Amino acid sequence: MDFTTDYVCIELKRRNLAYFRINLDEMHLYDIELDLQTLSLTLRIAGQTYVTNEALLKSVYYRAPIYLRDTYKPEVSADMQLYRNQWMAFLRNLSIFENAKWVNDPTATFKAENKLLQLIYTARLGFTCPSTKITNTTTISDFLDKQYIVKSVDTAVLQIDSKDAFVYSNVISDKELLSAELGLVPIVIQEYVYPKIDVRVTVVGNDVFAVRSE
Fold this sequence. Notes:
Blueprint: H1 3-14, E1 31-35, E2 40-45, E3 48-53, E4 59-61, H2 78-92, E5 101-103, H3 106-112, H4 115-124, E6 132-135, E7 147-152, E8 157-160, E9 163-166, E10 170-173, H5 174-179, E11 187-191, E12 198-204, E13 207-213
Parallel strand pairs: 4-5
Antiparallel strand pairs: 1-2, 2-3, 6-11, 7-10, 7-11, 8-9, 12-13
């Protein structure tokens, strides 16, 4: 269930705007046809038929793109694994409707998840960025006599004893870094900046909305 999307649908109904909603957990109940020649999408849901095309489709609200971190879980059946990754691939490929306004475009979302690319763009915009290195070696002579933030290159979601585990960013000293075993995987090492302020920025077209949290 996605209650946030429920509120969006209520507002669209209030404004008397045409829309249809696709729920990943119910996609096996839909009949779907995507025609690449005409760039049209037909959905039949509970006896109702919905048709859209590149000219009619104005915007797409793409919620919770879990394909980015849909990790393999041994207890999930092969059928369910196939269901999840193939339907997510189908939704991802709806980005062929390039004229629609996407929130968020799957391609842009994938790039936004790239921490290193974020740092490059941030520096280009003139922001001051902490010194950063990605490495799997203890040869870090340029990181000494300070505290550092250590984080995974991408969000790390693991399974330990059939339970989900999440790897958080950690503050460590230079001595801990020098004595650590880093050979298995690369990690991100950054200068520790404190105090700090987190700002979440949402951009819709030319409108920018920023929210600060401390």
